[in-house]
Amino acid sequence: MNILIVHAHPEPASFTSAMKNAAVADFTAAGHSVVVSDLYAMGFNPVASAADFGTRGNADYLNYALEQRGNGDAGTLAPDIATELAKLLAADLVIFSFPLYWFSVPAILKGWIDRVLVSGKTYGGRRIYDQGGLKGKRALLALTTGGRDYMLSEGGIHGDIEDILKPVLQGTLAYTGMTVLPSFVGFHVPYLKQEERAAILENFRAHLARLDTLTPLSFPKLADFDAQMKPLTK
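Given the sequence above, the corresponding structure tokens read:
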């Protein structure tokens, strides 16, 4: 496989970074091609703006998605976007590596999503969900959090982690057509002893080793909706 890891942690010595490093080592040893976009190390710009476009369809009003389409077709996207988009389009599997910040992804990763998931290339019109532009690719979230597992489960104080991550799992990955595999979460990481961290790391490596046996998460299919995106009566 061609594997892209989009990594968003500011500390190279973090446990999140250790998980990323383990994934690189194991996939490489298995003969896969691995590319890492280490967003903090790259100094990736997370701010979507008019500067992302070499040409403008409308110079007086910035409709970001429309300008993405025009510049994507013309090959005039900003160089950093074009580079990351090429990595994404070449990947068979995309792993997003990050610590949970405020029930979401770090701002630098959200900016990567905003800028790199280019309209017209990864989604657009009815090219969403199982017909999305990234159809055929698989995606996985690999994250860490300070909360305990029972705090981030159904009935827990924060609610189920999949519900918390729905904007990413459904609204980003599934929406653009990717097959979404079950996430791996390292719980309570900042407060664990070294041997407990080592056990989580081994569980993560085992999770990656059985990717082909994991049951993907379920999301909408366009065949279940009419031309106006209203549910079909069954």
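The chain has a mean pLDDT of 97. Try to locate this feature in the token string yourself.
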